[in-house]
Amino acid sequence: MSLQNNAAVVVRDLHRHYGKRIVIEGLNLRIEPGEFVAMLGESGCGKTTLLRALAGLDPVDGGSIDGPAQPAVVFQEHRLLPWAPLWQNVALGMDTAEGKAKAIAALQEVGLGGRENDWPRNLSGGQAQRVALARALVREPSLLLLDEPFAALDALTRIKMHELIKDLVALHRPGVLLVTHDVDEAIALADRILVMRGGRIASTYEVAAETESGPQSLRHKLLGQLGVTLHERAA
Ligand SMILES: Nc1ncnc2c1ncn2[C@@H]1O[C@H](COP(=O)(O)OP(=O)(O)OP(=O)(O)O)[C@@H](O)[C@H]1O
């Protein structure tokens, strides 16, 4: 895959089906370097399918993806190797003194300075996700794919992780695609929010413009797009 017009990724007319079930049908998407894009959509609409295709983990049935061959991915579960100390989990495959130094610096960036020789089993859920972020960013990826990385964390830890990921993205400037179920998380983090429906991008919202007078109206619009009315939520 080649980079097009300096974009972090360009997706054209993407198709993906499982047997007769069409999940992605003519999806187009472009993410710029440093741009934070969040994707919402009802359960089963194909968000993870899209993310896995962008990550090169699954094949597609049509269309094109122009982006890095191996973008960085962070999943809901940290996927750390239990038998490797934290620095090795981050350095993964970079078995040089330079690789180790980079891993230690990346751990410092995510607030785990001095913990490089510690083990995954000694970490809280939030700390483990910090290591997963360090592992993702240590290679300075041009595209960072986040599949609900904060969904399993408690509310306070999640807010701290939001601050961290905002700082890290401002520092490293990858293009970001975040798949999430959390409308408030999307508004808090993203420059642009996409709603996926019917196998493609059904709506796009520029967050800065939509939240000039506060986040509530965008929140209502997004919940409406996701088939949730405030009356139903209150019930
Ligand atoms: N390997 C597979 N084989 C067959 N069908 C699959 C496979 N993976 C996903 N699907 C189907 O494709 C559709 C989209 O799944 P996907 O996981 O991409 O949705 P999603 O939007 O990420 O859902 P959720 O928000 O619940 O995580 C679903 O109907 C799912 O059952």
UniProtKB/TrEMBL annotation:
PROSITE patterns: ABC_TRANSPORTER_1, ABC_TRANSPORTER_2. It holds the Pfam family ABC_tran. Residues 9-223 form the ABC transporter domain. InterPro entries: AAA+_ATPase, ABC_transporter-like_ATP-bd, ABC_transporter-like_CS, ABC_transporter_ATP-bind, P-loop_NTPase. One of its GO terms (molecular function) is ATP hydrolysis activity. Gene3D superfamilies: P-loop containing nucleotide triphosphate hydrolases. Keywords: ATP-binding, Cell membrane, Membrane, Nucleotide-binding, Translocase, Transport. It comes from the Bacteria. The keyword Transport applies. Transmembrane segments: none annotated. Coiled coil: none annotated. Belongs to the ABC transporter superfamily. This is Aliphatic sulfonates import ATP-binding protein SsuB 2. The lineage of its organism: Bacteria, Pseudomonadati, Pseudomonadota, Alphaproteobacteria, Hyphomicrobiales. The gene is ssuB2.
